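seq as requested:
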Amino acid sequence: MFKIEIDNDIRIIRYTHDGLISRQELGLAWGEILKLNEFSHLKFNLLSDYRNADFDFSVNETDVIWEFLESIKHILKGKRESVITDKPFTTAISMLFEKELYLKIGFNVKIFSTEKEALRWLSA
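struct tokens:
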């Protein structure tokens, strides 16, 4: 289950996910995020909170995610995403995207263990 909220004061989209996250559910969440004018057109950044979640797919199944993110690079270029995670596997999957997304499409993703640091980086 996921929840998406808009924080107009600090210009971020807060995306929180609980439980197991399948690739399909991740795709549904991103579909909802992309419908938001604040994200797609107003340059709001993204705070993804996976502290109560686990990815339910393997490293070998991330190709579809890469293809999707590359298909929306015109929206992601120049944006930032803070990922908050506290589980080793979720952190490892997130790390696969951290450096490469910036190099390939200019989407700056950083992983954090606390909301305070994640928000600080988004605000910098």
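The chain has a mean pLDDT of 94.
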